[in-house]
TrEMBL record:
Pfam families: Aminotran_5 (PF00266). InterPro entries: Aminotrans_V_dom, PyrdxlP-dep_Trfase, PyrdxlP-dep_Trfase_major. Gene3D superfamilies: Type I PLP-dependent aspartate aminotransferase-like (Major domain). The keyword Methyltransferase does not apply. Residues 1-10 have a biased composition (Basic and acidic residues). It comes from Cucumis sativus. This is Aminotransferase class V domain-containing protein. It comes from the Eukaryota. SUPFAM superfamilies: PLP-dependent transferases (SSF53383). One of its GO terms (molecular function) is carbon-sulfur lyase activity. Keywords: Pyridoxal phosphate. Residues 93-282 form the Aminotransferase class V domain. The keyword Nucleus does not apply. Residues 1-25 are annotated as: Disordered.
Length: 455
């Protein structure tokens, strides 16, 4: 009886290969190139955005694609359909899955180092309340120093005032230049601030370092500053990186901070609001607690944060869906960051050339946002002017963009006192920036100044 191989005209020692080879003469399967998301599909994912607005301010509130919104609604319905089942069987498992994805994205060493909270402001409160307890319970001496950047986010500054200053900490601000020309300028000023912090025998107990400052927007050389803190004996280092994940490269092993937080609803396509707080595993970092005390108190920050009472946790559960969305792009989130950086620099340079101004820092100190000088003839002379001009651009020109006031330096002639912070996210189009360019040029051509805006 003929063997199976003989029936198929193959020698007894041959085995057919799925992709074919020289022995079998079977045709190889053609390699199918991966299909990435198209421009039309991107626009469809963000079709819920107001089409009449040039939305070049992703940095403030972020964005969420339709596919992720649908996933969020499914989580919400699961809870509303059977809350008890959801609480006992779905919630903890779902949040653990999100934490695991975040752990891998940020290269944390252990899942226990990653907690999910509402936003970076909540994370700051968690860390700064711990520092306040260190002062009030005698682990730190009254008058010991905390160092933060002058450009720290306003809510974080207020949290330092509310917790650290009231507990007896002496707060020192790092005065940073703007416009800024190089990382060396930032490093120089940071070292000076640490020296002030150590004056009169004080110890520097805390350094709060932004990864990407909000206004004005600059990428801070965070790894270098953390290294300096280690060399100078700073006790605890907290990196406020509200804009970082999805916007610039982050790696917990390389950065080496004690605490690090970033919002996932700004540049990582999650719905509001969700952030992670990384806390390096160490006995010195074990006394972290969520500001809202629930029955999970004492079970570790990650568990405490996963249940702070009945509320909508859906934004914390859609991280797997967000990962699926970003992986539709070539090179995933890495490709998105590269695409956004290149586009925002190109758009910033286009605007600066049209207005005869300049960028607020070199391209290598930008991520997906950049500061662009506005024509000095607009007469921006206060923070109030920036808010009024921003409102005017929104209401009269349908352009949404934040504006920063820079006080003129002594002796400057025709100084640039207003800078626009433009963002670029995947939904943005070239026309958005042309609309902004034309709006400013129209204001200049008509002789507009901020004094014409009502108080």
């Amino acid at each position: 009886m003929a063997s199976h191989c003989e029936k198929n005209h193959l020698p007894p020692d041959s085995t057919p290969h799925l992709n074919g080879d020289a022995n079998t003469h079977l045709p190889k399967r053609p390699k199918i190139a991966p299909t990435f998301i198209s421009d039309s599909e991107i626009q469809s994912e963000f079709a819920h955005h107001d089409p009449s607005v040039a939305r070049i301010n992703n940095g403030s509130f972020g964005c969420c694609p339709s596919s992720v919104i649908s996933a969020q609604q499914q989580w919400q319905l699961k809870f509303l359909r059977q809350p008890d089942w959801f609480y006992f069987n779905g919630l903890k498992k779902g949040i653990l899955e999100s934490r695991t994805i975040i752990k891998d994205l940020i290269n944390a060493e252990h899942i226990d180092e990653v907690s999910i909270v509402d936003n970076a402001t909540t994370a700051a409160a968690i860390v700064l309340q711990k520092i306040a307890r260190d002062f009030s319970e005698g682990r730190f001496e009254k008058g010991d120093a905390a160092v933060m950047l002058h450009y720290a986010y306003g809510a974080v500054k207020k949290s330092i005032e509310a917790y650290v200053s009231r507990a007896g900490g002496h707060v020192i601000e790092v005065q940073l230049p703007f416009p800024v020309k190089s990382n060396d300028e930032i490093i120089f000023e940071f070292r000076k601030a640490l020296e002030r912090g150590k004056a009169n025998g004080r110890k520097v107990r805390l350094a709060v370092i932004d990864h990407i400052t909000s206004m004005p927007c600059v990428v801070i050389p965070v790894k270098e500053l953390v290294k300096i803190c280690r060399e100078e004996g700073v006790d605890q280092i907290f990196v406020d990186a509200a804009h970082a994940i999805g916007c610039t490269d982050i790696d917990m092993q390389e950065i080496d901070a004690d605490y690090y937080t970033s919002n996932l609803h700004k540049w990582f396509f999650c719905p509001p609001s969700i952030a992670f707080l990384y806390s390096r595993r160490s006995p010195n970092h074990s006394d972290l607690h969520h500001p809202v005390v629930s029955h999970e108190y004492g079970n570790g920050l990650a568990i405490e944060s996963a249940w702070i009472g009945t509320r909508d946790y859906s934004s914390q559960l859609v991280v797997p869906s967000v990962l699926k969305f970003v992986n539709r792009f070539e090179d995933g989130i890495k490709g998105i960051k590269k695409r956004n950086h290149e586009a925002v620099i190109k758009m910033g340079e286009m605007l600066a050339e049209s207005w005869k101004t300049h960028l607020g820092c070199p391209p290598n100190m930008c991520a997906s946002m950049v500061m662009v000088g506005l024509p000095s003839c607009l007469g921006i002379s206060s923070e109030s002017d920036t808010l009024k001009l921003r409102t005017h651009l929104r209401e009269e020109f349908r352009v949404e963009v934040p504006i920063y006031y820079r006080a003129p330096k002594k002796g400057e002639t025709a100084p640039i006192t207003g800078y626009a912070r433009i963002s670029h996210q995947v939904y943005n189009k070239f026309e958005d920036y042309v609309k902004f360019k034309d709006a400013i040029n129209e204001l200049v051509q008509t002789g507009f100044t901020c004094t014409q805006l009502s108080k």
